[in-house]
Design brief:
binds N-(iminomethyl)-L-glutamic acid, eight-stranded mixed β-sheet, TIM Barrel, alpha/beta, binds fe (iii) ion, 436 residues
């Protein structure tokens, strides 16, 4: 297969200074991995920091040194040292600059697709009916187990490239379509490969407890296998930072979920939970009690859950694309969460079953129109709060010392991103001070 080289060859902005790395099957593959240089972005019309003070500057500039924000301020006050430095320079032409977007919940690595299920749902079948009939996550499991590292990498790279083109600079990626030791480790190897071959920051989550694979008779038996066989090997491999579980009726109950998350925690993997998506199970309370970095979905959370999230550090992640794709009537109560004082992040949940979408911009529109978030809250949901859902405060905001990850948008205001849904394009997407 030479699809990877074709993909890289067509990548935007790759020039002769691209330093190739050794990739799959010994091929030279790289997507715009450039030598780090300093960067000055000048003539910014509006610079939105998304820092704790939500600082907004007009007629601004930003200086990125060795990949990190070293100065930001008025165009008229650029320090001489930056003004005179040998560096990459971008004239922002009065446009909007924001932190790079953070997609904090995705499943972008998978084999095949589930277009047929999309058609079935359009004629009345539900997500749970399809799963009970052997489709759903198990059908993607079969296609993922049957795919090579090269095939999985190539299809995921295509999706990552689409995300990057839409302003994303960091992506969380879950496993969960292997569901055997060998195939879950294969998915993590794909993520490791992707980390080295494209410009965005990728964070990996082990989701071995995504559903019970056909080799096991019940969830508890499989949960024990996840804890005793998979998790030690996953921790040893060292790619995953988080451990997630699909706590849902007919999938994993609270006891099985607790067992998996505690085993992960004991090996240094921070918990995340797919909680209360299709029914209330108690996954939110479980997550908060274990210090989960986030609980995600939340369509069926209760007032007690909202209080817990408002009073704790766990970030509430809402995934409006899944509710829209599955055509469920119930949306996560983002407005009530925010009014109570919780931090709310928004993600695509990009996956072949419940949300085949790479567009985080579009999720800000859905969160405002369907969940009552304001455009400001929605923008925080895909930047600083999404970063917090990954335990990070150095991305998703621009301030001195933060990562030099930013987007120059072809617009003058961030509210246009949800408002003109799908239409506002990046002019440049910059990760660690490097444009690609
Ligand atoms: O977040 N809910 C569980 N997991 C995914 C869907 C995975 C799939 O259907 O393939 C989600 O929606
Ligand atoms: Fe998910």
């Amino acid at each position: 297969m030479n699809g990877l080289s074709d993909l890289f060859a067509s990548a935007k902005g790759c020039g002769e200074d691209t330093s190739a790395s050794e990739g799959v099957a010994g091929k030279h593959v790289a997507w715009c991995v450039r030598a780090v240089t300093n960067l000055l972005v000048e003539h910014i019309g509006r610079l939105v920091s998304m820092d704790d003070h939500r600082t907004t500057l007009v007629d601004a500039a930003i200086w990125i040194e060795k990949g990190v924000v070293a100065w930001m301020g008025k165009q008229s006050q650029i320090p001489d040292a930056c003004q005179n430095a040998e560096c990459d320079r971008i004239h922002a032409r009065g446009q909007l600059v924001t932190p790079g977007l953070v997609d904090c919940h995705t499943h972008v690595v998978f084999g095949g697709d589930r277009r047929d299920e999309f058609r079935l749902r359009a004629t009345g079948a539900s997500y749970e009916d399809i799963a009970a009939a052997g489709g759903g996550i198990r059908s993607t499991m079969a296609l993922t187990r049957g795919a090579t590292i090269e095939e999985l990498s190539l299809s995921a790279l295509g999706r990552l490239k689409e995300m990057h083109a839409r302003g994303v600079t960091s992506v969380e990626i879950k496993t969960g379509y292997g569901l055997s030791l060998e195939s879950e480790l294969k998915m993590l190897e794909v993520i490791r490969f992707l980390q080295g071959t494209q410009p965005m920051r990728l964070l990996a989550t082990f989701l071995g407890a995504h559903t019970v694979p056909p080799e096991f008779d019940d969830m508890h038996e499989y949960a024990r296998y996840v804890c005793s066989e998979m998790l030690p090997a996953v921790a040893k491999q060292g790619v995953a930072q988080f451990c997630d579980v699909f706590c849902e009726r007919n999938v994993f109950d609270v006891d099985a979920s607790r067992q998996v998350l505690e085993a992960g925690l004991s090996l240094g993997l921070r918990p995340k939970v797919h909680a209360e998506q299709l029914s209330w199970q108690g996954g939110t309370q479980l997550g908060v009690s274990l210090g989960a970095v986030s609980v995600d979905h939340l369509e069926y959370i209760t007032d007690t859950d909202i209080e817990l999230l408002a009073n704790g550090d766990t970030v509430a992640v809402v995934l409006p694309g899944a509710a829209v794709t599955l055509n469920v009537e119930r949306h996560a109560p983002a407005r009530r969460l925010l009014d109570a004082g919780a931090r709310v992040a928004i993600a695509t949940d990009c996956n072949p079953g419940s949300s085949m979408c790479v567009d985080l911009r579009l999720m800000t529109t859905l969160a405002t129109t369907l969940m009552g978030m304001t455009p400001d809250e929605a923008f925080a949901g895909v930047t600083c709060h999404a970063a917090n859902a990954l335990g990070r405060d150095d991305i998703g905001r621009l301030r001195v010392g933060a990562a030099g990850d930013l987007v120059i948008w072809r617009t003058d205001h961030e509210h246009n991103i949800p408002y003109r849904y799908g239409a506002v394009e990046p002019d440049y997407v910059i990760v660690g001070g490097v444009r690609s």
